[in-house]
Amino acid sequence: MVQPTNVQSVPTVLGRSLGVAAIDPVPIFRDGLAGLVHRTHGMHWLGQASSQHGAMQLAEQLHPDVALLDSALDPNCHLTRLLCAGDPALVVVLVVRDSNRAPQYLAQAIAAGAHALVPRAIDPKRLSEAIRRAHADRRYLDPTFAALLGRLKRPSAEGRVPLPRMPLSRREYQVLQLIAEGLENSGIAKLLFLSVETVRTHVKSILRKLSARDRTHAVTIAFRSGILVTAPDDAHNVTPLNQAVTAPAPR
Prior knowledge:
Layout: E1 18-23, H1 27-39, E2 43-49, H2 52-62, E3 66-70, H3 78-86, E4 91-96, H4 103-112, E5 116-119, H5 124-137, E6 140-141, H6 143-150, H7 170-180, H8 185-192, H9 196-210, H10 215-225, E7 245-246
């Protein structure tokens, strides 16, 4: 896949080094994660994204081994589900904020495919270990969450945790995100490397699936139903659309 001009290729890293990326709306937190990965033997930093749309681009363009995802960007676990479905090799580590520590949310995240759950206030050494264990075992649960999940009663006879409905495909989800950010079909086509006609087809499908009258109505329905979510209060800096994904320059 052709990468946007602002996304630069990362040199090949030999051995067992893990490529790690972050999806988080807070610049200082992303920088802190990057610093931790740079200091950790056996890991290398691939890049970062600050939005749901950026997360999809990051997964498609940079192919990280591990993605650290802020739970504030995924309160209904739609993004986790789409990321895991799009790349079965990707390990998603959900970095859980205090506002998302409810047992039901933790169970939904696991059901959606999250490979690891860690608190946002986790100690750096523990986070490094969690990343390694999540990649090696494809499962890691921080001890602080084990007791919370133990209190959760089985929601059905099959013991399955119901997930919020997500009627859209990965590409439709991206297109809807960009519609919500104010882009017209031509701008969406340029950003996603699609033809305008293909974007029109996706828009028609979105309107049909959401039973929406028009684009504005579709966005309204998506926010009301939780398919789209507003940025958290601490997301002070909005990344420009043409810089949704950033990667380190070759050294």
